[in-house]
Amino acid sequence: MKKVFFLLTLVGFLATQAYASPTGPRKTKAPKVTLEKQLASYISFPEALAPIQRAGVVVIQFRVNADSELCQLTVFSQNEQINTSLTKQLTGKKLAGYSSDAAELHTVRLRFQPE
């Protein structure tokens, strides 16, 4: 009798779990590849790298405000010309598909190739 009760309980538990759905909606984030592609569409090759025709990597950090615009942008480069150029090009640009969670800090690595 105990075995039958246990098996019925087990089957009932498994049956309810098979049809269970999550209680809250899932937050889906846009992949970082999309973020990098969106940022790349807003910027051009930095003037400071043009004379030496060299590739470069620059790291930027930013937050997205309630209007889906870039804010609190920081560029991590040793070249001040690159820092100001990228800051001017990206400040206030809109990012499609990103939440306005101002607490979330995004870090992106940008790669530049000479044309």
From TrEMBL:
Record keywords: Signal
Signal peptide: 1-20
Superkingdom, taxonomy of origin: Bacteria
Protein name: TonB C-terminal domain-containing protein
